[in-house]
């Protein structure tokens, strides 16, 4: 974003001092890219507030949708993948609407694969796995969560691995694999503790109580 703002400053000065107005469309695109990133971050913070209050933030979805449109307009597929994921996450987590969420999560996964964004892909796969689990498709859910977990291990995203293992614990319980569930719970506890993920530790203990 700093580089984009430097570009805008340079294009502004060329227009004002040199009369070079041909660069103004480039300045608009740079500002659109900055605005898209800002909107995405604002939406993410609102999502955190939802997790605390469980009250739907009025602007959250609008921020993510506007960000997706701007990323698409400037040709930033990586950014668009993030925005598409968050639109899907909003529908799934805030509105408990998986049928609406899944197409956005799928689009996010497809764009992430195209751009090589493994982190966003891991999020999209995780939430597609959650959707599959909620629909009773345990085999698909397990495959999606395991793929997401493999990506997160590669990225050394330890709290994210622990979070995924929670879902895999519940799947192991649902599939009558109690030994696997216990093994997963042990690893998840270690990872969550070492990374200071207190909230995930609470989720692990809740899952362990179901084994």
Model description:
The chain is mostly helical and 211 residues long. It has one domain: Tetratricopeptide repeat domain (Serine Threonine Protein Phosphatase 5, Tetratricopeptide repeat), CATH 1.25.40.10. Helices cover 83% and strands 0% of the residues. The chain contains ten helices and no strands. α4 packs parallel to α6 and α5 (98-115) packs antiparallel against α6. The longest helix is centred in the N-terminal third of the chain and has 30 residues, at 24-53. The protein is elongated. The mean pLDDT is 97.
Can you give me a brief rundown of this structure?
With 211 residues, the protein is mainly alpha-helical. Helices cover 83% and strands 0% of the residues.
Radius of gyration: 20 Å
The CATH topology corresponds to Serine Threonine Protein Phosphatase 5, Tetratricopeptide repeat
What profile does the largest beta sheet have? none
CATH architecture: Alpha Horseshoe
- Could you list the spans in which at least 5 consecutive residues all have pLDDT below 50? none
CATH superfamily: Tetratricopeptide repeat domain
> Share of helix among residues?
over 70%
Mean pLDDT equals: 97
List SSEs in N-to-C order.
HHHHHHHHHH
Structural class: mainly alpha
Per DSSP, what share of the residues sits in E-state strands of 2 or more residues?
Answer: under 5%
Number of strands: 0
Shape: elongated
Q: Can you tell me the number of structural domains? A: 1
